Amino acid sequence: MDKDDQIIQSRSPVVLLPADFRLLGKHPFHVAGHKYVSAVVEAARALPLIVPALGTESDVAALLEVADGIMLPGAVSNVHPSHFGQEVHDPSLPLDPERDGLTLHLIREAVKAGIPVLGICRGFQEINVAFGGSLHQAVHEVDGMADHREPKEALVEEQYAQVHSVNTVAGGMLAEITDSTKLMVNSLHGQGIDRLGYGLVAEAYAEDGLIEALSISGAKTFSLAVQWHPEWNVLNTPSYLAIFRAFEKACRKRLAQRHADNKN
User: Fold this and answer.
1) Are 6 and 247 in contact (CB under 8 A)?
2) 71-105 per-position pLDDT tens digit
3) Running DSSP on this structure, what letter comes out for residue 1?
4) Facing residues of 120 across strands?
5) CATH number of the structural domain spanning residue 39
6) Can you state the angle between helices 3-10 and 238-263, rounded to 10 degrees?
7) Which element (helix H / strand E) includes 167?
8) pTM for the whole thing?
9) Are the C-beta atoms of residues 122 and 73 closer than 8 Å to each other?
10) Structural domain containing residue 232
11) Beta bridge pairs of residue 213
12) Per the count of CB atoms within 10 A, which of 97, 123, 206, 262 is most buried?
């Protein structure tokens, strides 16, 4: 092993983290939640690179050249329903068209390039929409579905507590990563998958039948998304940590491959 190889083994993979575009006070900001950033650092043992919700398709290509992985975090906003052929159901809920403009293209290009992708909550929904799927804009209003929203007035620890189980699909990626047929998860979402996107595979279901995890069929590497929040208390929750460690493994493989390609 030469000196360059030793350096690359000790280097942290770079994980792109798309930012939300939000008004804070009277001014717009590009922001990323601390719990997602810290989960990338502590659980995936990688270097997070926060990406502003701006840019062109050529900018995305440049970003992918330095990316060893992409994590699509949750957010207070929803994917704009125009991306799956619907009108806005509840105008009081926040949207983020600037983030949509980055992530929907970024997801498809990352999968083509063989870059590991991990989606969480909004990120899970973004992947579904990016591949032609649709969403229930209010899961709790759908016959037979439970209310998956968190209690708004509860303490944060109560909001992120594990409140329901999901059944993993036998032989699937999530079942293999967690070595489990049933997981307990938190639940903080009003929207959820209606029609699964093209080429996507359901990896877990809630008791009411709602898809809670998915992977991307034909992806060259790790491609997993979950509707819950595994970044929360991740180091103390074995099933959550297993997801991030599997993501880390794929990112490190990508880093090593980029290094090898650059040497040749």
Assistant:
1) no
2) 999 999 999 999 999 999 999 999 999 999 999 99
3) -
4) 226
5) 3.40.50.880
6) 150
7) strand 164-168
8) 0.95
9) yes
10) 3-263
11) 204, 226
12) 123
